[in-house]
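BUG: 3D viewer hangs when loading the predicted structure for this chain

Environment: internal workstation, default settings.
Expected: structure renders.
Actual: progress bar stalls at 90%.

Input used:
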Amino acid sequence: MIVFMCLLEFYRRMSSNAKMCLMTAFDAEIQKLKEIIKRDVLVTAQDQKIVSSHGSDSKWLFDFRKILLKPECLDLIAEIFWKRFKEQYPFQVGGQETAAIPLISAIVMKGWELGMPVNGFYLRKSRKKDGLQKIVEGTLNDEKIILVDDLINSGGTFVRQLEVLGQLGKKVSHIFTLMNFRDFENFSFLNEKNIELTSLISLSDFGIPLLKREEKKLPTNNFDIIWYFKSDNPNYFYVVPKSAPVIDDEKIYFGSDSGDFWALNQSDGSVAWKYKVGWHAQGKSIFSSPVLGQNCVYFGSYDGNVYALDTATGKPKWIFMEADWVGSSPTLAPDLNLLFIGLEFGLWNKKGGIVALDLDTGEKKWQYIMSEYVHCSPAYSQSKGLVAIGGNDSTVYLFKAENGELLWRYKTDGEIKASLTFDEKRNLLLFGSFDGNFYGLDLKSGKPVIKYEMRAGMYSTPIVYGNKVIFTSLDKFVYCLNLDTKQLAWKFNVGTRIFSTPVIIEDRLYVGANNGRLYEIDPKNGKSTGFFQVTERITNRPAYNAITKKFFLPTYANEIYCLEVKLPVP
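Structure tokens produced before the viewer hung:
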């Protein structure tokens, strides 16, 4: 049950006079905290310019960081917390960095003073990339958990914490925040988990109306987990797109950091077969996303090989062994019986390239060498007979697909990491660069027709949706541009970096992000309509079986979640 200052139950066994005295003291402390917040935390547009995450000016902001390291403020908050939760003892207290850390510390120390020691811990916003690579810092015990934070708005921060702790088998009983921005009925996800919410102060205490659903709709978790699979020994260091899953009618295929290439049965996640690739350097193994064709699954590996495996048995049909590393993903040209893929070499003047291989034999048909590494994956247009690729030399190359004749090259000011997309209707080649720009190049001349400035580079592949192109950026935004007018149609802020490529499924846009959330978005207007939360970062797009209606969501930790859209409640 969600509560707001629900103290009567707390003191039901006390005498009326004792209750009155204690409530009076408690109210005085709350009033003192309100005064501190009004004086030191609340910032209005009259005080200074406030820019929102959408780039527009805001009228107000609560900057709790100003007081969360002041001893008198922390002591006051800890006093209030213990008066509220003393009868819940024993418990442990935690929260997500950064604001929760000083709150946890103050509460733990106050508990020690009171002779009621509690365990404290905090969750990282993302897993540490080196050392012990933890998400949770501190030691969890078996006591119930009270999560703390400075405020609650949409509740997204707590949704992730509940997912992490739930996977660890831990139970959250209460959430404590200094302030709430919305009516408690907005936080239905807490009711579903039987978690009580206590928030000391609300926007209305400062003459600011509570945020309403229509102002910023709170999406709901739209999915149920059907099954879950995790490959051994994931590499948490590399936060990049890895091997995205592909599916046929029965199986799902993907590579892993352990060097195992997996074929799982879609029905229950059981292993149909697996194939072990060769030795790989620097902790990298299979980052290449597979493609299917001719009863084979094709992919590259950082052992330097390109593989064609039989989809039924997992046995090699052929292996191409001329590269030193392969992080690129293949693309197929069945009409030419060719596979295109980027290669990397350990030579001074030969570090990268693109190769065309015979689909049946793996025989090299043509090759083009570049001076820098190639992580980018090729894009192929059958109707145009063209193949394009980018490289770490900041250059995009366009070739005749049949024979590898170079038609033109275009140099940007940043590396080209992800794949490109052909807009055949408008004769454009679409891609993003690490120079912070999104480009649309004319296929005939190689000159830019579109150049849209983002706030950071791009590590994903754009998708064409009607007369629009949708793409993601490391600046935390999903962008939608009108290809005819060259104007921004909408953008959506996920609040964290995005490496994954967006995908349209059943007229909905799905984008995974570094906060472990799969966002469901209406591609017509950019409004969020649902989500699914996991523990690890999502750096690749999900696969979807249109017959069974199952989603297969990967994470960078080599996990696969088989998901199904929740049935509506009768």
